[in-house]
Design the sequence.
């Protein structure tokens, strides 16, 4: 009898390090720009429009063509298929502007050169004649102009809103402007294409959605999808900015590669990347809320106007998700919310961590705050008074019952552990005694729905090969952008086979390995791909059990998986030995796994359904100090309690929570997108667009995972999605700043800060509160 | 006649590089990634703001090599003559064993997407060399020039604090080669002038100050390049040619700091980092400002002379220097002249600098006893941000409580760094009281008609300028309150 080894152990739920960590720190992790290019690789560069809206009169590229080092140019006429990369399939997103320029920074042509520098210099030589047209820059002017919607709006309605409003003892109406956000992935957009035989092309694309890049490239080239293979090993950050925005770049290099039969790479400069690619939608939410003297909300009626930009892209599902989160964690007895994805002459806004949800939730926190100031109460009391119930008051505006509600416990525990009440009293005391430096503290909840609201996206595939020596190839449809998906799925597989992680090779994501994948988005990566990999392992294991029972002459039920191998009756067989014998006995050692999320359905026309498999919860307390002479501020302390179910990897999840919070804080504080009066974005580089630094991290930053939480649904390891929800914990920073600003008016006036809450907004908020208090 | 060499020579990791053909616009990052195929250093922004390309550049200083973190994206290869360039590829041992900095980052989950990570590793390496057990504040300061979008920095800060538990700087694997590197650098630094290329591709690296004066007087159209923290962007963002160029980083006389009983003189090539201890010694009121402009890498490259010479309306050194009564020393060939710093800035993009004339040094008088002085930098993000406005205030209140002398200068409020003379006039001779301040703040509107842009609105700039005077007054009377990072 073989000796049982002691090395292998369960891999799931361990705080395992990121699989690429040692390569990251050594500079050995390969991003697309690091791949050693095939000989003769060409470099493309895009020529961008210098107008927000104009008729194209003439494009003269003769000087571009003859510039040193130029191989040729690409325009609309060089596209054998469709001049379109619209992910909504509305054919409203040309690769190269056609007829009209619709935003400042829109690609008009590409130049292909021997070097990137040659192409980039040549791109400046284009002579483009434009006839300027009036342009619509933002939500308010789009609404005023009756601008069209880029896609069908959504309405969610439940209860009798008119009656609720009419009968409400108190009402508050207002408008909140919520700024957008640039992804500022550290690795910008990039793609490289290598032509193959026949119609084939292989594309390396920094994308969260290889299958869509594959489809787009095929449509642009006018070939079938099978001719296009898209690979991505890792991205240098995505955050939603590479869900659809990589399509255009991939299409351009594929066009060039096929036209000149040479490899081609494109990498825009940071300023061009920020000018030409979509961002988080800015919103204006106009609201009317009825409530009672106890602060309970009775009715909500709100319109969510969003700057969609010039094309539909993902603006439909983004604005849908804003409405799905108009409730955050709150029960509305009557509610009517409507979206307006408005056409504007700006870059087409797109997915960004939270996908509209954060904007919906932030507006909810705004009216909670309005109610609290009107009633002279702690906003936390108003929040608690309106939380969803567990047995009743638990129907969302989209008619899904919230059946896993743990927000009350999360908030109660955090309120205690953060010493919220005593600190709030201390803050008020401080403010009474200090004239210049004012403090604020706030606790805000998060409830976030998990699943793609496009129900068909909730599927995933995996491909697992076990080789004769027992080593394993793991492929699945998810992409790695730093979030730790690869290591989590590898842990699932290691756990399933009872092997060490070093037995598993995590393969780059490729459309040739797993077809028809969904975007790695909506926080769904581990839920979907973890299950798909688990399913592949299950099939191989079942075959191995049959095999082992035969070889070791025991019942299949007597074959037990143990760390490092199997126990077949009395016999321990190492995984390697089992695989070797299985191969000799002609057992198939490869499997495709597949998973679809159960239970979910959604009827957009009626606004009813069960779009989310479950909810993730969390809460944060932020404390800030502001300087009322300048509006400068700092976040002094943050306490977080967040729900990840039973964590698949606490280290990775902690990274998502800390990182998500800081990214959310950036969105809501210093990250300001500014367009000038010509419609040009002026904040298109880190010199002008300010994401948080190490010195913006709260000096006291206590982050805890709710260890007791278990997903009530049978997800992989009973874990919960963690990619997006923590971003919204940063709403507490806005609310804390708000309290500090309110202190200059002795908390009598709701500060109503729009976001991002820059130092300027803080100072001007203080000025306004003072004016209003004076009357 | 100076000895002229027709090659740039430096050490890259452990390899000696000698280049006889190189453009003055070739950046170190492109050289590493494209020519050498060392692709660990990343391009994130190509403007020195994100730090993904951070490498260390070592330079002989007295008896040792000083290693500075720099952003390779805006550092020109032509500025590296006689230096030791250390990239992320050089840190791990040949057998793959990670360096303590790297291992600490891995173990503390300091990387997620990993793209910024090599830059963080290099910045932390530079910090650890000089400060193996840094405070949180020191870590934050060292990382001001490194952006991470994934981690929220917390794990990186934890890693930074833990590095020394993986090994002491004395046991640094790279320290072992330091003696040999030093000997090699001493050989490379042969005192030669370097001249390469023709026309727009021409550049010269003078070895001495007199050479610079002579060359520039002969070639007044040449571009003087010091830290390239501004000129670098002309190349990476606007694809401008900068040749013929004169790189002044190898002129020892320009790195001098001269002190006497009444004033301190910074020669033009002194970097912000080199100036820091002297500045904070004489003007402790400038410590916060000095630690808040740009990031560490840019402070290591950028020079005091460059910040003045380029005439930017938003440079952060002119306002305090003007308030302190600084004198600028200009030189053209053998001819030298001295002007008040405030007189140097004529208009937007226009300075009082003649063809062939360059900024040689700036002299700052000590603050006379009994005078009060403060500088405030206001920006959207606290660190590594360009000022929305920067105000410097200096006052002498006599023993009758009246203003005996007042100097106020601002950046970000006009087309040039500029004094608030109307406000000064409203204060001069008046009692130093709240009433006087309130009567004077209105004069800011006659001194300045600021613009609104992506950094701040005109109204905000004007209001804050007024409030800063209020703050300054409160501070001089002991009633001031200021935000201090981490104080709460």
Sequence:
């Amino acid at each position: 009898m073989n000796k049982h080894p002691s090395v292998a152990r369960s891999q799931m739920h361990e705080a395992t390090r990121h699989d690429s960590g040692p390569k990251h720190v050594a500079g050995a992790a390969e991003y697309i720009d690091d791949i050693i290019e095939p000989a003769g690789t060409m470099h493309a560069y895009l020529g961008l429009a210098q107008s927000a809206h104009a008729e194209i009169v003439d494009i003269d590229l003769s000087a571009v063509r003859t510039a040193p080092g130029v191989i040729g140019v690409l325009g609309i006429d060089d596209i054998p298929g469709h001049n379109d990369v619209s992910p909504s399939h509305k054919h409203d997103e040309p690769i190269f502007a056609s007829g009209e320029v619709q935003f400042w920074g829109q690609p008009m042509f590409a130049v292909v050169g021997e070097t990137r520098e040659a192409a980039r210099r040549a791109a400046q030589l284009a002579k483009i004649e434009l006839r300027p047209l009036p342009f619509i820059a933002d939500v308010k002017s789009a609404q005023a102009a009756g601008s069209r919607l880029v896609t069908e709006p959504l309405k969610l309605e439940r209860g009798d809103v008119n009656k609720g409003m009419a009968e409400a003892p108190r009402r508050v109406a207002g408008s909140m402007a919520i700024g957008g956000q640039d992804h500022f992935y550290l690795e910008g957009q990039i793609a490289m294409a290598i032509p193959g035989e026949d119609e084939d092309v292989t594309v390396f694309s920094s994308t969260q959605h290889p299958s869509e890049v594959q489809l787009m490239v095929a449509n642009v080239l006018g070939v079938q999808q099978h001719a296009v293979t898209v690979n991505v090993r890792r991205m240098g950050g995505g955050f939603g900015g590479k869900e659809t925005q990589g399509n255009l770049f991939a299409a351009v290099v594929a066009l060039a590669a096929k036209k000149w039969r040479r490899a081609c790479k494109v990498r825009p400069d940071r300023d061009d990347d920020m000018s030409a690619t979509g961002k988080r939608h800015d919103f204006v939410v106009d609201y009317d809320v009825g409530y009672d003297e106890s602060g309970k909300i009775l009715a909500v009626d709100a319109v969510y106007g969003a700057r969609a930009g010039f094309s539909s892209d993902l603006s439909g599902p983004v604005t849908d998700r804003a409405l799905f989160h108009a409730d955050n964690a709150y029960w509305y007895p009557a509610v009517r919310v409507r979206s307006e994805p408005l056409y504007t002459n700006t870059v087409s806004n797109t997915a960004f961590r939270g996908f509209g949800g954060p904007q919906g939730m932030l507006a909810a926190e705004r009216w909670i705050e309005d109610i609290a100031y009107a009633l002279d109460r702690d906003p936390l009391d108003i929040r608690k008074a309106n939380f969803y119930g567990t047995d009743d008051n638990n129907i969302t505006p989209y008619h899904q019952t919230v059946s896993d509600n743990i927000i009350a416990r999360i908030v109660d525990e955090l309120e205690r552990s953060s010493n919220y009440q005593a600190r709030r009293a201390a803050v008020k005391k401080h403010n009474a005694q200090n004239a210049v430096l004012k403090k604020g503290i706030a606790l805000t909840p998060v409830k976030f729905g998990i699943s793609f609201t496009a129900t068909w996206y909730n599927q995933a595939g995996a491909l697992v090969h076990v080789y004769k020596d027992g080593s394993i190839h793991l492929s699945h449809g998810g992409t790695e952008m730093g979030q730790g998906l690869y290591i989590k799925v590898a842990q699932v597989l290691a756990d399933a086979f009872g092997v060490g992680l070093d037995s598993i090779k995590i393969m780059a994501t490729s459309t040739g390995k797993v077809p028809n994948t969904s975007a790695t988005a909506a926080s769904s990566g581990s839920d979907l791909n973890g299950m798909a990999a688990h399913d592949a392992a299950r099939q191989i294991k079942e075959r191995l059990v049959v095999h082992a029972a035969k070889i070791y002459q025991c019942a299949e039920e007597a074959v037990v998986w143990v760390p490092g191998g199997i126990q077949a009756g009395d016999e321990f067989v190492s995984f390697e030995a089992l695989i070797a014998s299985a191969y000799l006995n002609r057992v198939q050692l490869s499997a495709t796994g597949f998973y679809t999320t159960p239970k979910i359905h959604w009827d957009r026309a009626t606004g009813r359904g069960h779009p989310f498999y479950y909810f993730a919860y969390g809460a944060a307390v932020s404390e800030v100090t502001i300087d009322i002479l300048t509006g400068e501020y700092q976040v002094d302390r943050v306490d977080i309690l967040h729900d990840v179910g039973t964590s698949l990897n606490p280290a990775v999840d902690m990274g998502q929570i800390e990182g998500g919070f800081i990214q959310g804080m950036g969105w809501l504080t210093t990250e300001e997108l500014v367009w000038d009066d010509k419609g040009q974005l002026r904040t298109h580089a880190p010199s002008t667009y300010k994401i948080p630094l190490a010195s913006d991290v709260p000096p006291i930053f206590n982050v805890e995972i709710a260890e007791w939480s278990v997903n009530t649904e049978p997800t992989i390891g009973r874990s919960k999605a963690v990619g997006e929800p923590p971003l919204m914990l940063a709403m507490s920073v806005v609310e804390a700043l708000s309290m500090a600003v309110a202190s200059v008016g002795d908390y009598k006036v709701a500060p109503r800060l729009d976001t991002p809450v820059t130092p300027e907004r803080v100072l001007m908020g203080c000025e306004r509160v003072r004016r209003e208090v004076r009357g | 006649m100076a000895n002229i060499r027709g090659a740039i020579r430096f050490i890259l990791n452990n390899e000696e590089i000698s280049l006889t053909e190189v453009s003055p616009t070739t950046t170190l990052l492109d050289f590493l990634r494209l020519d050498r195929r060392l692709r660990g250093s990343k391009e994130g922004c190509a403007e020195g703001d994100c730090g993904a390309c951070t490498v260390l550049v070592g330079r002989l200083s007295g008896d040792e090599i000083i290693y500075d973190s720099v952003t390779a994206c805006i550092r020109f290869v032509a500025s590296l003559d006689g230096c030791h360039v250390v990239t992320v590829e050089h840190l791990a041992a040949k057998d793959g064993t990670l360096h303590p900095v790297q291992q600490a980052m891995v173990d503390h989950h300091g990387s997620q997407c990993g793209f910024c990570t090599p830059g963080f590793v290099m910045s932390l390496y530079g910090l650890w060399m000089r400060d193996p057990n840094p405070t949180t504040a020191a870590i934050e300061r060292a990382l001001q020039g490194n952006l991470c979008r994934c981690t929220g920095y917390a794990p990186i800060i934890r890693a930074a604090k833990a590095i020394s538990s993986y090994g002491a700087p004395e046991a640094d694997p790279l320290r072992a080669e330091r003696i040999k590197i030093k000997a090699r650098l001493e050989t490379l630094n042969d005192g030669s002038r370097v001249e390469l290329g023709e026309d727009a591709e021409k550049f010269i690296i003078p070895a001495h100050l007199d050479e610079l004066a002579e060359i520039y007087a002969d070639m007044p159209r040449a571009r003087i390049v010091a830290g390239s923290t501004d000129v670098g962007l002309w190349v990476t963002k606007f694809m401008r040619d900068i040749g013929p160029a004169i790189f002044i980083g190898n002129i020892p006389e320009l790195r001098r700091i001269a002190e006497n009983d009444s004033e301190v003189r910074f020669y033009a090539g002194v970097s912000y980092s080199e100036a820091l201890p002297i500045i904070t010694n004489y003007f402790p009121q400038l410590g916060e400002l000095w630690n808040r402009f740009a990031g560490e890498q840019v402070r290591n490259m950028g020079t005091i002379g460059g910040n003045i010479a380029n005439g930017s309306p938003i440079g952060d050194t002119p306002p305090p220097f003007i308030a302190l009564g600084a004198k600028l020393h200009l030189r053209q060939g053998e001819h030298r002249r001295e002007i008040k710093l405030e007189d140097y800035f004529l208009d937007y993009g226009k300075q009082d600098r003649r063809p062939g004339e360059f900024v040689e040094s700036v002299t700052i008088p000590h603050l006379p006893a009994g005078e009060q002085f403060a500088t405030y930098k206001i920006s959207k993000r606290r660190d590594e941000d360009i000022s929305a406005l920067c105000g410097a205030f200096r006052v002498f209140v006599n023993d009758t409580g009246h203003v005996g002398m007042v100097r106020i200068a601002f950046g970000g409020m006009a087309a040039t760094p500029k004094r608030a003379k109307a406000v000064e006039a409203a204060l001069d001779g008046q009692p130093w009281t709240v009433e006087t301040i309130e009567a004077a703040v209105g004069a800011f509107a006659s001194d300045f008609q600021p613009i609104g842009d992506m950094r701040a609105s005109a109204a905000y700039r004007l209001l804050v300028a007024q409030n800063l005077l209020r703050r300054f007054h409160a501070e001089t009377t002991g009633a001031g309150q200021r935000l201090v990072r981490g104080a709460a």
Q: What stands out?
A: Chain B touches chain A through 90 residues (CB under 8 Å). The mean pLDDT of chain B is 96. The two ends of chain B are 62 Å apart (CA to CA).
